[in-house]
Automatic annotation (TrEMBL):
This is 3-isopropylmalate dehydrogenase. GO terms for molecular function: 3-isopropylmalate dehydrogenase activity; magnesium ion binding; NAD binding. Keywords: Amino-acid biosynthesis, Branched-chain amino acid biosynthesis, Cytoplasm, Leucine biosynthesis, Magnesium, Manganese, Metal-binding, NAD, Oxidoreductase. The gene is leuB. It is found in: Cytoplasm. It comes from Leeia aquatica. Its EC number is 1.1.1.85. Substrate binds at R93, R103, R131, D220. The record marks Y138, K188 as: Important for catalysis. NAD(+) binds at residues 73-86, 278-290.
Length: 353
């Protein structure tokens, strides 16, 4: 189990340190875990001039799975686009071909009041959003800003090929088969041809999965339905841009982005695992960040890349137990619970494990 660890910027190193303690604990219990550190993002730019340097590329390509913290921060905001930390993130996703981004939005009963939505709307919520991660308008060519007829024009290209849609649709149907056999595909086929093809191909793939109840929804309606009645959804699948937006929206149904893990998988279940949130420069270095999203990302790693379901469930049970004990980092703190730091949260998870 060869793991590359890329802590990144901001709170990245703080939250990843707690997740590594979990890996160490599992290793002492006998899992053959080996890991090595690399740089990615702003820190990598400072050290090497590149947000995804050659040495990190080698490390990531040789690993079975990658654990990533987060990248970016205001000190790198004025760099040219190719050197920006986010380019490192897009670069590693693209190079590894991790096209299937799985983002569960689960409301823990202990955090029922953390959401800004009414408890009856979100209680028991358990959605899996599957976002295509290496295509769409984020990567389409041509792209740029240029002068036409004396004014500046910015443009990007939304593009999906049949094979790109087919492979993500398969992941979505397989995921639906393992859950409640209900899949909603989100597009904007009334306006965008690329997503007309999306709907056509998803429908075709669906013929191989007659047991799955497939529905289609336009993205603007999906955005609305997610806050109106989110429990109507089980598995959702959509393209890169819509998935980016809808998965952030869904994350807030659960109260805190500090709780939400993600997995990004290639066709062989090699995966990149990271919390859904960013580098949180506002709280970096203060021992305040919630490490649970990163720790839960380790659980996803064990489940999807290493098929260690028992170990994954052990981690998830430890997290639930810590929440049940009333221990909370600042982002999920409420009256009647005990506010603790990043490292104390790590201590509590380790103890529960
Ligand atoms: P962010 O997710 O870093 O922070 C948004 C808010 O959530 C902040 O108030 C932050 O303090 C809070 N927050 C985030 N994670 C938390 C945690 N684990 N515990 C407690 N509170 C947490 O998003 P923002 O502020 O838009 O971006 C900050 C930087 O992160 C930017 O440079 C951005 O480009 C980068 N970013 C990186 C991502 C990645 O590496 N995957 C994803 C999103 C943003
Ligand atoms: Mg995003």
């Amino acid at each position: 189990m060869k793991i590359a660890i890329l802590p990144g910027d901001g709170i990245g190193p703080e939250i990843v340190a707690q997740a590594v303690r979990v890996l160490d604990a599992l290793r002492s219990d006998g899992l053959p875990i080996e890991y090595e550190y690399g740089v990615l993002g702003g820190g990598a730019v400072d050290a090497t001039g590149s947000p995804y340097p050659e040495a990190t590329q080698k490390l990531a390509q040789a690993a079975d799975a990658i654990l990533l913290g987060a990248v970016g921060g205001p000190q790198w905001d004025n760099l040219p686009r190719e050197q920006r930390p986010e380019r490192g993130l897009l670069g590693i996703r693209k190079q590894l071909g991790v096209f299937a981004n799985l983002r569960p939005a689960v409301l823990y009963p202990e955090l029922a009041n953390a959401s800004t939505l009414k408890p009856e709307v979100v209680s028991g919520l358990d959605i899996m959003i599957i976002r295509e991660l290496v295509g769409d308008i984020y990567f389409g060519e041509p792209r740029g800003i240029e002068t036409r007829n004396g004014e500046r024009v910015g443009y990007n290209t939304m593009v999906y090929s049949e094979s790109e849609i087919r492979r993500i649709a398969k992941v979505a149907f397989e995921t639906a088969m393992r859950r409640n056999r209900k899949l909603c595909s989100v597009d904007k086929m009334n306006v965008l041809e690329a997503t007309q093809l999306w709907r056509d191909v998803v429908t075709e793939v669906g013929k191989d999965y007659p047991q799955v109840e497939l529905s289609h929804m336009l993205v603007d309606n999906a955005a609305m339905q997610l806050v109106r009645n989110p429990k109507q959804f089980d598995v959702m699948v959509t393209g890169n841009m819509f998935g980016d937006i809808l998965s952030d929206e869904a994350s807030m149904l659960t109260g805190s982005i500090g709780m939400l893990p993600s997995a990004s998988l290639d066709a062989n279940n090699k995966g990149l695992y990271e919390p859904c949130h960013g580098s949180a420069p506002d709280i970096a270095g203060k021992n305040l960040a919630n490490p649970l999203a990163t720790i839960l990302s380790v659980a996803m790693m064990l489940r999807y890349s290493f098929a260690k379901e028992d170990a994954a469930q052990r981690i998830e049970a430890a997290v639930k137990s810590v929440l049940a004990q009333g221990l909370r980092t600042a982002d999920i703190f409420e009256a009647g619970t005990e506010k603790i730091s990043t490292t104390q949260m790590g201590d509590a998870v380790l103890a529960a494990l």
